[in-house]
Amino acid sequence: MESDDSSEAPRLAQAAVIARELALPLLLILLVSSMLTRWQYALAWINRHRPPYLVAAKTTLLPHVQCQMLNLEVATLDPAPDRVLVVGSSAVVNGVDAARITQRWKAVGVPARLVNFGVTGLMSYELPMIARHLLANRPRAVVFLYNTFSFGDQIHRDAVGTRWNTGEALRSFSLDALRAVGIEGLCDAMLGELSIVLRLRLAFKWVLTDALAGRLTTNDLAFDLVPGSVPRPKIRARVMQPPLLPGDKHYWHRACYLESVTGHDTIGWRGLRRFFELARAAGVPVLVAPAPEPDFAMYGKYKQGVKDEVVDRTATSECRVAGVPCIPRSWCQDLQSDDTLFRDDAHLHDVGRDLLSDRLAELLPRALGLGAK
Amino acid sequence: MNFVSSIFAFFLLVVMAGVCMLRGRVRLMFVTVMSFAFYAEAYPPHVLILVFTCLVDFLVVRAMSACGDERRRRALLLVSLGVNLGLLGWFKYARFLVATTNDLAAWLNVGVRLPVPEVRLPIGISFFTFQSLSYTLDVYRGHCAPAKSLLEFAFFVSFFPQLVAGPIVRAATFLPQVGSFRPFVRDRTIRGIELMLVGYFQKCVVADNVAPIVDAAFAHQEAFGWAAAWLAALYFAVQIYADFAGYSNIARGVALVLGFDFPVNFRWPYLSADIVEFWRRWHMSLSSWIRDYLFLPASMSLMRVRALSGWVLAAPTLATLGSMLLCGIWHGAALTFVAWGLYHGVLVSITNLMPRRRKSRGSRVLEAAKQAARRLWTFVLVLGGWVIFRSGSLTAAAAHLGVMLGRGSLPAMSGGEPFTGLSMALLALAAGLHLLTWFAEYEPEKRSVLVSTPAWLRPVVVATVALTIVVAAGGAGSFIYFAF
What we know:
The structure holds two protein chains of two kinds.
Chain A (H helix, E strand, L loop, with lengths): L10 H28 L1 H9 L4 H4 L5 H15 L6 E6 L1 H4 L4 H11 L4 E4 L14 H4 L6 E6 L19 H7 L2 H20 L1 H4 L1 H12 L38 H12 L4 H16 L3 E5 L17 H15 L10 H4 L13 H19 L5
Helix pairs in contact in A: 2-4, 4-11, 6-16, 13-14
Chain B lengths: L5 H16 L2 H17 L6 H19 L4 H38 L17 H17 L8 H9 L1 H4 L7 H9 L6 H34 L6 H32 L17 H7 L2 H20 L10 H18 L3 H19 L10 H27 L3 H11 L16 H19 L18 H15 L12
Helix pairs in contact in B: 1-2, 2-6, 3-4, 3-5, 3-6, 4-5, 6-8, 9-10, 9-17, 9-18, 10-15, 10-16, 12-13, 13-14, 14-15, 15-16
């Protein structure tokens, strides 16, 4: 077929139209996004008006996770050198009361401030991906409180749009892992990486909708689960539940527990090693410790059969190789055996949070050499 | 592939780069391959259906063109019709037909139970089948020259902007454009971008935000009060229009940027003065297809039937009922779609049978009031149709319509959730924009705002609107018409 190209504009003219009419607006969007990530006042204002957990998680968990990341973006802009960041999953979000710890440190003259950098479902492969948040402005130290599912070989599909770094992904992930994310997932991830507006769109939308509806409220709560909203739990029955089997849509989580125990070359363990490298290069000390998980979780459908000590052994060995201090589980063993401190298989109740926070307030200055003034 | 997805953004970038860099047959081949990839993204094996449709219709038309014998030409046309409608029937209606037959057999106490085929519906099969069929029919009637090559024909059938949800493009208008492929012409590109922005606004901001309200409302259809029943119908009317018109505008915008004109598919349908006008403004590419390939031939054939010769209006009325019934079935394999088609068939027939309106001699104000009343009445009739269309069953639809008419359930407002103040504001916004664009006769391809915007300001306007859409968008759902 002969096409009538005689009247068609030359390539350069077409490229100019594309550049001016399509590429320029896109560049503007990226520029605005980039400015927004650095505009502390605006981000802090949006963050202060983010919806509380129960509202945000009403439909799906995604707006809630975006709110957590928004909180993290704001914390990243804090230039104070006295910050000690505690990073981990929702066990950290709801288990570490940063204000309480900072207050206790202040009382005894520890010249540091604790910042809760927990995000729901955070896996250790994501540490290098959010390293730009964790290592920005060179904090005093980063403390990673890991779960026994943290080192699996699975990519958290729902999280890729909110926390992603293509460079790190290409460096650490196998082709199989990338395939599991799928092309659409990777596209979501890359667009999210490019623009904060896309990355945290639902959080922004929530605040905008609240503002339009005239129901904007401030949210100073550092953690998700509202304190005192649930009565203290009782002792749980130790009855084995059938484990989840491959094919179940929630098996993903159980697979992470199993792989954290059996594999040493998972994306989780590789991510931990990579984060150690990045932190060392940035001159930021890292401390690793297990987050308390209730003993009764062993009877649940996810963790069943996964022993803490196996994960702890590998974590200790990885830390030893990298020269990173690792706190043994004994620091929270007694908390784990008290069922009444936990709301569910992963999250501490208010009393448990206070206990864990007090213990961290004592442990960290010694372990990190923060020292009193 | 969904227009509202990140993968489409990257896909479009690659297509644009390729279209800009390549020329001639290679470019045509590139876009065709990309279009097949676009289709394969949903479910790769279904590409084979698309390939098969292209091959059969291309070969049939080639044989038809080379043949002078009318009987043979007609036989070839029947082959094309058989293959296309056979594929459509199997993939879209086999399950429904077998299940209905089994239900009927059970009701009649006949001990027959046919195995229900598990068939996965290929997205957009109704659209590309109709598009491909129109080519065969047009060539057969001599309204269109055959495509010069298989590549050109495959390009026409598979061109990604219209592939899965229309507009249904005719070969006679599209094929000449393939020969003079002129992408990225400045003004047309700007208009295309504007159409895309309008489309994304309709889809993401309006339809996707209304969708959860509609889902929640229709999930509790049995608990409706009078006001809730009307509101649910109203919200669905907004959703389906914004969703489908949004898709069409995005498709037309993308095509325009790449150098192709697609027909207008919607022109303020909810402001029609009667139901016939509604069908001239709603899904125009489908309604004109049905008029040209179903209604007119059926009317002509029925006029030749002796039994009907005594009644002049019998043939067009029967043809209307038949065409609208098929239009309903085209939308899906369910009794609600059948009923929806018949409902519109009856309304169109009644409208056609009514005496034509004479020009009023009354005052302009009175005439305007009458016109407004007519528009409102037509909209109410359309709402009734949407209730049938959206309901899960005919029983649910009948109950819903009964409540709307004041029969049964509570006579007072009992909607509560999901009809919140914010959702009402969204409804008001959608209605306001619909009216505003109608008064201003705003159509991006004719009266583009962006074209008349200073060049330095245009990127700022585009970026601002795009950012607003991104932030205000609802949860990205699939397009309603993907299911058809």
